[in-house]
Amino acid sequence: DSPVQYERVGADVTMKCGSMDWDAAVTWTANGTDIDESRLNGSYLILKNVDLTQSGQYSCYEGSSWHLKYQTSLRVGTPPREPVLMCRSNNYPKGFYCSWHLPTPTYIPNTFNISVIHGTKEMVCEKDAVPKNRCHIRYLQLFSTVKYKVTLTVTNALGKNFTTLTFDEFAIVKPDPPESVVAKPVPNNPRRLEVSWQNPSSWPDPESFPLKFFLRYRPLILDQWQHVELSDGTSHTITDAYAGKEYIIQVAAKDNDIGTWSDWSVAVHATPWTEEPKHLTTEAQITETTSASTSSFMAPPTTKICDKGAMVGSGAMAVCWTAGLVVAAYSVLFI
Amino acid sequence: SPAGDSWGIFTFLCAALCNLPALPALNCSEELGAGQSIQQTYDLTRYLEHQLRTLAGTYLNYLGPPFNEPDFNPPRLARAERVPSATVDLDLWRGLTDNARLAANYRAYSRLLCYLRVLDGQVGTAELRHRLAHFCASLQGLVLSIGGVMSSLGYPLPAGPAGPPAGPPEAPPAPNDFLKKMDDFWLLKELQTWLWRSAKDFNRLKKKVPPAVVTLRLEARGF
To answer: d(Cα A195, Cα A265) in Å, to the nearest integer?
Structure first.
């Protein structure tokens, strides 16, 4: 297997044909294609100001015998720029995780090394299988006054770089967004929307470390959000919605006392309950009366009663069932 | 809300029962009183934490660099061990009894108050003296509040410096100006960490003691 040769973008590369003399007659190929003699200086191949497209397999053959004298795999890349490192505790008080990436690609393989120092102690950050470029640490002690210092070093064949983060235990606490956000209209209330959600599943101990929440909502047609901060509970009823307008709603979470707000949850849409128009179109009326008189076994559509509200909750189901029973009883009378 | 109404009824009954001379002291009014004062103590820690942020900022600027640099991360010297630390093993913290939890807070703030009062006497500017005095008064209130919770739950107060101190115990004076400033730095750091910890301590205590959704003033026993 041919050795790999790493070179920087923009560098001048000189390749020697193994142990052949400078004045030997040779042919160079790049990925199997012959290279023009103008690129050669004797038996040396000169590549000036290399770019990424020149990565590949370079081979050198003796002039007459076509013996392979030398082969190398050229990889053009860059040394690493300062990596971007982020550490966060979304599972306080269990621990925290750090994740990193390079701001620009290097086009060649990189290795990352992370070290975590707490006071005088070095802690081990266990690498996650998925996603890569992430590791996690368990807290051994809580309420520490000593900062954590995380250093990430990235190394490749062309150079190395590093970055450091220093932080207090409390400063990096940021929960994941709330889950299962649901917004429902409230029957017979044209200005209300009932919103409920759950604690993020990554937050391990909401009993001892309660979360508070921030709700924002607006009708789709407006840009201005309305905000509500809630110090407990995982539900809230909006009472000032514009009648008949579709709303977009999001929730964020934060530890009651420390750290920062989570990102916004997935947005949910809901429209407040609106009253059914009293009159039906004439076409619909005719269909209804016809089906009621002609069919004894076929239940007339019960969807009219059950259709109220955009979402079906348990209350609406009870109405459906009742309607179904009434219709069934009525139908039996017709037998 | 319906939940509030049933609590109201419950507390009314409890108060009525507790005042029947025939029954042995049910202590329920005291427990409900404790629930309210746990909430008050929690609120006090949040207020103090907020106050401390301003105070610490001013004080560290007064100390000057490197103490007022955000990245300043000195090693903990042995002499800093005198200041009671909030740091604790996670499982140990979880397993603390209510009494132990409250006592740890009581002892810590009593001692921190002592140290702060010494600071108050030495500090240079009038603004700082004013801020420190105000903070010490609030911190004294916190100590008393914790003491009140402990008493209402029937726990004995920990022995030790509770009232105005003669001076912090076993405190060799700092041999030089820099080390003195380090002492001050760690004092403020520990105070800040304790206030964060106390919020969590009192959250846990809130769950244990029934919440007092009380509109009746049960403290006035002449009911």
So the answer is: 13
